Amino acid sequence: MLNKKHFKKIALFALIAASFTACKKDNDVTEPETPQNTAKEFKFLRVLVADELSNKLSQIDPFSASVTSYDAKYPLANLYGTASGRYAAVLYPSQNLVEVFDSGLSTHVDHIDVENQPKWTAITATGAKPTHFKTAGKESLIFNDAEGTLSLGVETDFNTAGAKFKTINAGLLPHHGAMANFDSGNIAVTATSTAGTSPTRVLIIDKNGKHIHESNLEVGAIHGNATDGGNAVFGAFASSAATAGGVLVVKSTGEQRLIPNPAGFGAFRLATIYYADAADKFIGFVATKGAYLVDIKTDKITPIYAGADAFQCKVDYAGKKLLVLTLDGKLRVYDLSTSQLIKEGSVISAVSATDTYKPVLEASSKFAYIALPSTGEVAQIDLTDFGKVVKHKVSSRPVRLTLFGFESSAGHND
After folding, report:
1. Cystine design at 235: which of 203, 224, 303, 313 (Cβ 3.0–4.6 Å)?
2. Residue 410 resides in a domain
3. What is the 3-state secondary structure (H, E, C) of the chain?
4. Burial degree of 4 (CB within 10 A; 0-12, 13-18, 19+)
């Protein structure tokens, strides 16, 4: 199944093969590529930003350094780029609403087309407290915490007037749930035995809610997950005692096992799980312990960054690097093929551990983007030279951030 990362790698390969670089406007004639010039972001990558207090949604076009505002329904939206690269899901958990924003960009393997101007799509979802989001291929999946259902959206419906996400009811009780899409089309989803309590099991269902594989392993409280298409990895405590943690690995065929945390890890779980597609690696993160490589082939969990001061940890858009931002304002960049540190340095002012809304990090293969609530800006930091920073003024209190679009500068007429 093609997902966002595959599209990006295809587009990037085409860009290199064509030996063209970005131009200032969509319809400009391209200039010959200058390989050593990394000062520009990819022409078709976009940054979407939500504000704590305002319902304004800001889209940054880093290549042209332009910012455009759009009216969202509510402030404090959760933002997620879709696997195809074209759209971003906009979740309002407190208002029981999901909208989808359209970048207007689409991939055609060797180039990117501008299909339309950025706009809101027609589709919505109205499940109760939409919280967890996952995406694969051209599908978007949301877990609705307050009712235990899932909402499924397909991109071919996004711009159809009156379209709604499909509701999947698998008979689950309401809980703070998580799910993962398998390449088979089935879904691994958490379950709880008591409404409103943390999930302790994972079962596999189809897109109609039919149970395909029941849970065969109960663990402690589950939080966070990712998938490589054949395996879903969930952060979990080992038991209800919550004295030790690990990750629950669920195969698409139904088998389940727990990989324990390293010896001496303590009563912590890796509450955020990522899958880096290009590197083919799982990463677990928890602020109190740091970032860890989860090797499901050897059933080992090993440290990448072991520290209690990391408050942001993200895989870059290309799926090759891991970025860790610590309270002292230092950014660390790791090569996920080796887990080795390749660059570190101070990029923002020190952050208070007690701040409700701290700076938020995302990254392309060229730049780190950090939303700064205190200044109303998004800092764009060159990953080859942390001293090169562009600050985009977006809104009064930017607190949510996602990337979408494509890591390509090859347009239709290039």
Report:
1. 224
2. no
3. CCCHHHHHHHHHHHHHHHCECCCCCCCCCCCECCCCCCCCCCCCEEEEEEECCCCEEEEEECCCCEEEEEECCCCCCEEEECCCCCEEEEEEHHHCEEEEEECCEEECCCCEEECCCCEEEEEEECCCCEEEEEEECCEEEEEECCCCEEEEEEHHHCCCCCCECEEECCCCCCCCCCEEECCCCCEEEEECCCCCCCCCEEEEECCCCCEEECCCCCCCCEEEEEECCCEEEEEEECCCCCCCEEEEEEECCCCEEEEECCCCCCCCCCCEEEEECCCCEEEEEECCCEEEEEECCCCEEEEEEECCCEEEEEECCCCCEEEEEECCCEEEEEECCCCEEEEEEECCCCCCCCCCCCCEEEECCCEEEEEECCCCEEEEEECCCCCCEEEEECCCCEEEEEEEECCCCCECCC
4. buried
- How far is Cα 55 from Cα 206, in angstroms, rounded to an integer? 36
Predicted local confidence at residue 172, as pLDDT: 98
177: in domain = yes
> Has residue 117 been placed in a domain?
yes
Are 91 and 74 contacting, i.e. CB atoms less than 8 angstroms apart?
A: no
By CB atoms closer than 10 A (0-12, 13-18, 19+), residue 262 is middle
Distance CA 281, CA 318 (A): 13
Structural domain span for residue 165: 4-405
Number of domains in the chain: 1
Give the pLDDT of residue 85.
Answer: 97
Residue-level pLDDT at 38? 53
110 to 5, 20, 61, 277: CA distances (angstroms): 15, 12, 21, 20
pLDDT band at 13; cut points 50, 70, 90: very low
Residue 316, domain member (yes or no): yes
Question: What's the whole-model pTM score?
Answer: 0.90
pLDDT digits (tens, 9 = 90+) for 104-124: 999 988 899 999 999 999 999
Q: What is the pLDDT of residues 277-289, one digit of tens each?
A: 999 999 999 999 9
